[in-house]
Amino acid sequence: MRRRAIITIDGPAGSGKSTLGRRLAQTLGYLYLDSGALYRAVAWQSGQVKVDVGDPQSLAAFLAAFEPRVEASANGFRVFVNGRELTSELRTPETSQASSLVAARPKVREWVNRHLRELARDGGVVAEGRDLGAAVFPQAEVKFYLDARLDVRAARRRREWQHQGGAPGMEGVKSELAQRDRQDETRAASPLTIPAGATVIDTSDLDADQVLATCLSRIREILDGDLQ
Q1: How many domains does the chain fold into?
Q2: What whole-number distance in Å separates Cα of residue 167 and Cα of residue 157?
Q3: Which of the ends of the chain has fewer CB neighbours closer than 10 A, N or C?
Q4: What is the pLDDT of residues 65-111, one digit of tens each?
Q5: Residue 93's closest CA among 153, 151, 165, 38?
Q6: Structure pTM?
Q7: How far is Cα 173 from Cα 151, in angstroms, rounded to an integer?
Q8: Residue 125 is inside which H or E element, if any?
Q9: What is the CATH number for 138?
């Protein structure tokens, strides 16, 4: 691609954002940015050092000193804390649940957004999350919003957690995702919403190849075929 655009992918958990984000980045030779990994890193580290994220002063002091090393490439998004890679560990059910709580804190969102914008300063990124097209990169040239039925999203998330060594039952996963949806949609700071101008895709009955092909076609349309 000759134009180094910013492409955002938003949507609820289990809608296929990460799979699409990684595959788009690899196809286009763009950096892949995983905003959720940064929220999970804050949740993980604040738990390690016993920070009361509900106390504004304690949270502000923690965020001012917390600078994990991040490696973004077309092949993935890696997070290191004190020299230790946490990329896989950050995706456990416990850390994912804790991240939804810290994500409701405006100071945490400001911290994450600052890091994302710095990584995207030269364009050429595929960024996925829950408020990227609306709040973080409203100027993005291409925006997608993925969604899927709750039962489909729960099955996907449960398979992901099973690969990591364990997962709750299907009803437990569905309940947790429904609760996460409510938290994301009703939080005061940058709630989950469909960004203006976003292409909405229901991935319930589509496989990863079909979603990728749909998005690549849409990117070509928006950028007037300006792909190498």
Answers
A1: 1
A2: 9
A3: C
A4: 999 999 999 999 999 999 999 988 888 878 888 888 899 899 999 99
A5: 165
A6: 0.90
A7: 9
A8: strand 125-129
A9: 3.40.50.300
